[in-house]
Amino acid sequence: MRTAAQVGRKPAAIGGARTEAGVIQSNEAMDTDRKTRTDSDAAARDGASAPNMSAVEAVGLTRRFGTLTAVDNLTLSVPAGSIFGLLGPNGAGKTTTIKMLTTMLPPSAGMARVSGFDVVRQPVEVRRRMGYVSQMLSADGALTGYENLLLFARLYAIPRPLRRLRILEALEFMALSESQNVMVRNYSGGMIRRLEIAQSMLHRPAVLFLDEPTVGLDPVARRAVWEHLRGLRDNFGATILMTTHDMEEADELSETIAIMHLSRVVAIGSPESLKAQVGPDASLDDVFVHYAGGLIEQGGRYSDVASLRRTVRRLG
Amino acid sequence: MQAGFGIRGSGFAEEISLGICSANPESLTPNPACIAIIDKRMTKDPIYRAFIRDTLALAEVELRKLARDPVEILTRAIQPALWLLVFGQVMARLKAIPTDNMTYLTFMAPGILAQSVLFIAIFYGINVIWERDLGILQKLMATPAPRSALVLGKALSAGVRGTSQAVIIYLLALMLGIPIRFQVGAILGVVGFVLLGSALFSTFSLAVACVVKTRERFMGIGQVLTMPLFFASNAIYPLAIMPAWLRALARVNPLSYQVDALRTLMVQGGQSMFGLGTDVAVHLVVLTVLVLLTARLYPNVVR
Fold first, then answer.
1. Which of the two residues, B200 and A11, has the higher pLDDT score?
2. Is residue A40 in a domain?
3. CB spacing of A48 vs B142 below 8 angstroms
4. Residue partners of B259: CB distance under 8 A and separation at least 6
5. Does residue A5 form part of some domain?
6. Residue B17 has pLDDT above 80, yes or no
7. Which chain B residues touch A136 with a CB distance below 8 Å?
């Protein structure tokens, strides 16, 4: 009955918060489950069964584009079953980090593991165990919601007898059952985003990567997406790693936050501990100002980001 | 909490309802044996099966979209219609081009089908740039689908469009009184070659898109490629009347083999210059090489 107990819980935070009683407890719970899986799965190779395994682990992860260092020596560890927010202004290197973790971009230096598999040496194993929701609203407007899901159910190698059930379940979970046969071009932004999250959960990923999941959504749709992401973690045990430049989103959703600024992680910890380190009544904005030396809006004007991305595209 | 596929709690209900697994009645924690079954099914996915399934899944999506929005088929019919009705009719009057035992229009109709296949396919690569800009490609690349299946899936999608062109050109040819071969085998052969040819040229186009990466550059290069490929082929005049240098180019141009096969299979009196076996072999070899090459280039687009 662990499921019910975990709803609304904020579990393990890395970096300075490990001694809290609740954290230890949840780590034990994780270990028990991991053991179950190890016993059941002869293919628990390559350290996937190592104790205290993180769902996502990066050590010294670096990516350079020519002389530009987009991500500099990034080290982080995301406990299984937690929601991790990578917070930073546009151009801080969040998307490049996600690209490396999702096997889209080889790192220049360092290593990363997702669900125990190396992103460079075992990219297909990583992709089998992860879901990815891109920054842009990318569902296919010329297909229905159901058809969008069917395509990904196939690409994720979900066995045929399970496909329809998984799709219907994902639709229901994301509150899209009513509109499953409607062309996606008629969906609202919030519905499309929920459909994309549905696409990425069909195969029960161990880790879900979301790049700015609520950017451009209205407040109501944004709340709905947050609720669904939390539900996804609580019901399916997915670890969620998301990037955001939205303080409220990071504070509301993440158990752990890493603040990225100018290609580096400048602070990491639970929202509470980060705030506590800065001052008694500090908000996350204050934390950001403290570490990045400026408000988030001031970093990275759109033109800077656009030109950076052009550079990256040309050189990459 | 599951470190693996994260199967637990209510998320496990359908496996239980299917009878694939049974739940431990004491708790919501799923039966480990069941996790093993699901795990195995998903990780022991043989590459050839994944390749075929994913390729067909992507092509099927394209077919659905095309069936829903046939306007595109009609607009694309205009160009071949102009070639056949205007260029073809005028050239036929000149009787300047030796076409052995057939009329010039009969000679030219399969060439125009090959041209349509080429023109649609050669700009197909822009789709991948579009999809990159829309975030679709990133999402596809994040699935375990083999890259080669993503490429061939796109290529087959172009084939679906090419086949719709074949229907149009058959109709135009009938209107013009061109003697069509209506044997089932011949028509299936045309469909097969149109699929192969579309796949080949669209994969080439995808490879170009992977290298140039932007729409503007791609359009420029697409224009530069189309006409040389078309004119250095036997589409609207036979190899026999070409100067030696052009004939040499035409002989290494896959489009010539596409035209040769279509001319043999589509119209009465058509005779293969290279032999249909050679035509198939050239298509298959070039397509395979291009798919493998493009699969390697593909990740560049999302970087």
1. B200
2. no
3. no
4. B110, B111, B114, B233, B234, B235
5. no
6. no
7. 133-135
Name the residue facing B5 among A129, A143, A166 (closest C-beta).
A129
pLDDT in tens, B194-214: 999 999 999 999 999 999 989
Tell me the count of A-B CB pairs closer than 8 A.
Answer: 186
What torsion, rounded to 10 degrees, do the Cα atoms B180, B185, B186, B189 define?
140
Q: What is the pLDDT of residue A161?
A: 78
CB proximity A297 to B under 8 Å: no
Question: What percent of chain A has pLDDT above 70?
Answer: 76
How far is C-alpha A205 from the geometric centre of its chain's CA atoms?
Answer: 11
Residue A165 to residue B17, Cβ atoms within 8 A: yes
Chain B, 180 to 239: residues with Cβ < 8 Å from chain A are: 213-214
Which tens digit of pLDDT belongs to each residue from B257-302? 999 999 999 999 888 999 999 999 999 999 999 999 999 999 888 8
Adjacent-strand bridge partners of A78: A56
Q: What is the pTM of this model?
A: 0.80
Average pLDDT, chain A: 79
Q: Which residues 75-114 of chain A have a CB within 8 Å of chain B?
A: 80-81, 99, 102-105
What does the CA dihedral B83, B84, B90, B94 come to, rounded to 10 degrees?
A: 110
Looking at residue B25, its pLDDT comes to: 38
Decide if B43 and A127 are in contact by the 8 Å CB cutoff.
Answer: no
Which pLDDT value is given to residue A158? 86
- Residue window 47-66, chain B: list those with CB within 8 Å of chain A: 50, 53-54, 57-58, 61, 64-65
- 3-class DSSP state of A172: helix
Count of residues for chain A? 316
Cβ under 8 Å to B: A residues 273-292 = none
Distance from CA of B18 to the nearest CA of A (A): 8
Residue A3 lies in a domain: no
Domain count, chain A: 1
- 3-state SS, residue A266: strand
* DSSP characters over A41-63: -TT--TTTT-TT-EEEEEEEEEE
What is the Cα–Cα distance from B251 to B229, expressed in whole angstroms?
11
Residue A238 forms contact with B (CB below 8 Å): yes
CATH number at A99 reads 3.40.50.300
pLDDT of residue A32: 41
Nearest 5°: the CA angle A227, A231, A235 is 175
Instruction: Categorize the per-residue pLDDT at B8 as very low, low, confident or very high, splitting at 50, 70 and 90.
Output: very low
Is the Cα torsion angle B175, B177, B182, B186 positive or negative in sign? Answer: negative
Q: Which of A3, A134, A169 sits opposite B138 (nearest CB)?
A: A134
The pLDDT of residue B18: 61
- Is A127 in Cβ contact with B1 (below 8 Å)? no
For residue A48, is it within any domain? Answer: no
Query: Phi and psi of B124, rounded to 5°?
Result: -65, -30
Q: Which domain holds residue A124?
A: 53-315
* Chain position carrying tokens 């809006």: A297
DSSP secondary structure letters along A91-140: TSSHHHHHHHHTTSS--SEEEEEETTEETTT-HHHHHHTEEEE-SS--S-
